[in-house]
Amino acid sequence: MKRFINLALLAFGLGAAAPALAADGPVLIPRPQKLEMKEGTFTLNAQTAIYIRTEELRPVAEYLRAALAPIFGANAPEIKRTPNPAPAPAPDNIILLSNRTPENLAPEGYALTISPKGINIRARSAEQIFYGVQTLLQLLPDAIESKTAPADAKWTVPCLNITDQPRFSHRALLLDCGRHFFSVDEVKRVIDLMARYKMNVLHWHLTEDQGWRIEIKKYPRLTEVGSSRMGENSKMYPDGKSKPAFYTQDQVREIVAYAASRFVKVVPEIEMPGHAQAALASYPELSCTGAPIEVSTHWGVHKDVYCAGNEKVLQFQKDVLTEVMDLFPSKEIHIGGDECPKDRWQACPKCQARIKAEGLKDEKELQSWFIRQITGFLSDHGRRAICWDEVLEEGLHEGIVVQEWRGHKPAPEGSAAKAAAFKMDVIVSPAPTWYLDMPMVKDKKGGKYTWGRPANLADAYALEPIPQGLAPELHKYILGGEGCVWTEHIAPVRFDYFTFPRVLAIAENLWSPAEGKAFAEFYGRVKAHYPRLERMGVNYGPAFAEDLKTRQDPGGEL
Ligand code: TNX
Fold first, then answer.
1. Could you tell me where the beta strands, DSSP code E, fall in 10-109?
2. Is 215 buried (19+), middle (13-18) or exposed (0-12) by CB count in 10 A?
3. For the whole model, what pTM was predicted?
4. CA separation for the pair 1, 159 (Å, rounded)
5. 536 Cβ neighbours under 8 A, 6+ residues apart
């Protein structure tokens, strides 16, 4: 077990209500709500079996068995049903997964008990048991994360009681597959990593100016034309080839099912009315000018957007979303709504005619009208739109979930605070602190990062999702938050380097109680966790400038 200096007492001294993890305690990320260490240990051995109380828990037991493969091989431990009624005393040397819970356990909580005789994980739902399993895996020696564990490893876990529950329900990572494509296996790996830290939503950004990545049967040119571009305009990848890169509908289903088996919901993002150049390259008639255009090969905010005066565009969006709803069971569908310049609409007779016909004041109101057509369509189909925080400026409220990205100001100015005041549900993912594409440090040895504003591990950790000064009765509108992996500068090879360790701070902020939060204590755990990340094959980046000496950017010079 890794040791670390615990500064929980310091947090106590400053008046925090609850301690962080006990001194010399296990290295758990995110920090559980309550942990009580006990005397003794339990050692997993060849006879250890997994018992499940109901069939519903079998998939979780299978996941656990697969995770324990470095110890036992592929087909052990055995999975058994507990007899009903359960025998007393309960059998020894088992890992019990049970959905019969202690009375006082919170509805969203799990209880993990380890005694010298065995391991007990109890919760009401398979999902919460799954989180108990993740905690158990972190209690095992780091070698559990290796492909083949050393023969002499001892699979000992400390005796303890943990009761734990998430602070927020939306604990997400955004993955931008528009700018850089991630293969099916790479996406699955991202999902696996998220699950390790109890994150439960993959916000899958699938359409961009630079690439349309999801097969839509009714509009084949979206992927025939829109999924490739003439070279990747990333200085790191000057040899980027123009080859199609997209997910077939079967692959999408495969990823959605894979994520579901890890209790990760996939929320797709289909961007409109801006960030649409790849779609316009595929179907130029959807733009204001109708002129041929190429899939974009440079980054930034683009002027060519969907025409808001053209009936065909609305039909197109509804057709696309119909196929999307068929693929994604998620109630929420993200429709973007950010960064839509109005230049083309100002010069477009159709857009101007629409403004007149609908009695709208200007192009801004035209955007709200457009978004309203789509959010209405989604709600008619039992879904809910998520939009970037620009929707607030457009005066749109009804039923939309707002995703805050332009900073995280205190109440009443910040967009999260404003949205909550409108009784809108909110997801917080402010730039630059939770934008994982931002450089960790300003200066890079031998050069400078050429984009963004830096945010280090302490910045990511310091962000408190509930905006400062928000009235307590509005806190419930903050559903949670997201770390955003935008990929203009992040090819898959750099994913780990930019995402870790900062995503650990985000995961912890979204899961762990606010009480007892102390950076020094957290950083101690992160450092103690690094060897485990290495076992997992995660090429984490620097937390601070001093780490640049040891953590090399696999992207090379920018
Ligand atoms: C802004 S966040 C964007 C993205 C970029 C990102 C780069 C948002 C709604 N729009 O399109 O990728 O900045 O950090």
1. 34-43, 49-52, 79-81, 94-98
2. buried
3. 0.94
4. 13
5. 145, 193, 196
Q: How many CB atoms lie within 10 A of CB 168?
A: 19
The rounded Å distance from CA 484 to ligand 1 centre is: 9
pLDDT at residue number 90 = 81
d(CA 187, CA 515): 34
What end-to-end distance do the CA atoms of the chain give, in Å?
39
Distance CA 108, CA 167 (A): 9
**Test site for ligand 1: of 277, 301, 338, most ligand atoms within 8 A of the Cβ:** 338
Which is the closest atom of ligand 1 to the Cα of 432? Answer: 14
CA distance 70 to 199: 24
- What token pair was written down for 204? 């899958």
Nearest atom in ligand 1 to 208's CA: 11
- The tens digit of pLDDT for each residue in 341-356 reads 999 999 999 999 999 9
User: Contact, 65 vs 52, CB < 8 A?
Assistant: no
Q: What is the pLDDT of residues 527-549, one digit of tens each?
A: 999 999 999 999 999 999 889 88
> Interior CA angle at 112 toward 464 and 75, to 5°?
115
Report the range of poorest mean pLDDT among 10-14, 92-96, 546-550.
10-14
Instruction: Judge if the upstream peptide bond of residue 30 is cis by omega within 30 degrees of 0.
Output: yes
Tokens of 188: 């699955």
Q: What is the C-alpha separation between 405 and 187, in angstroms, rounded? A: 23
Contact, 539 vs 554, CB < 8 A? yes
Residue 178 carries which side chain, given as an amino acid letter? G
